[in-house]
């Protein structure tokens, strides 16, 4: 079996689509299909169920793909060790970030890595914090900028870039616009605009309300903070956000929530075993330089 066949099969498993895998790999869909079929023939088993509804990993394919992922990780580590001995930093680094993260410090860090290590191929995928941490733990991502309430997923290395507060944001014509703070219980009297489950903001809101012994209703469930802010600006509800992401709009009034549990953390997570590659370490160093202990 060829190394590129393993990469193709894992891309199909991750994307759950031959077409999407081909786009990620920058090859033709027919090429991916043909190489995966050759791999299946050599292994003597079917890795994927193909149907009009999509592509699914077969029960027999799941443990084989897990082993293939581990094998590729070790092959990449061999290359990384050789590169380090030759004084090179190259290869690939897969980075994850919470959706809608336009933080200049984050973008500056990416730019620095790109300029400093031109032989390093960077990729970026946005997703929910819970999914990002799962993907880092599974080896689908090398590192990620994610949020958590108390601590990230067990087994991941991490450091905190920002200590945030959970706040409420309302339009300038909202009845609360003249206030500077509210209680968690006040949120029960208003339609809440919140992010989807699995996002750091939603987890922080749910954790705060749970700690206060209150339900955590959400009337408007959205994917991005920008959408939440836009709905609140139009008087459709009270957006529950974290403080560092509620600074941009001038048509919103920020309200402190009086709760010692109204906290959230934004930081970087990575796998500690196996140890990060040279490329991942270079990226982590750039992130720490630009992101750590910023407000």
UniProtKB/TrEMBL annotation:
Span of domain HTH lysR-type: 1-58
InterPro entries: HTH-type_LysR_regulators, LysR_HTH_N, LysR_subst-bd, WH-like_DNA-bd_sf, WH_DNA-bd_sf
GO cellular component, one term: cytosol
Keywords from the UniProt entry: DNA-binding, Transcription, Transcription regulation
Keyword Transcription regulation: yes
Keyword Repressor attached: no
Superkingdom: Bacteria
Span of the signal peptide: none
Alphabetical list of Pfam families matching this protein: HTH_1, LysR_substrate
GO terms assigned for molecular function: DNA binding; DNA-binding transcription factor activity
Family listed: Belongs to the LysR transcriptional regulatory family.
Protein name: DNA-binding transcriptional LysR family regulator
Species the sequence originates in: Microlunatus parietis
Lineage: Bacteria, Bacillati, Actinomycetota, Actinomycetes, Propionibacteriales
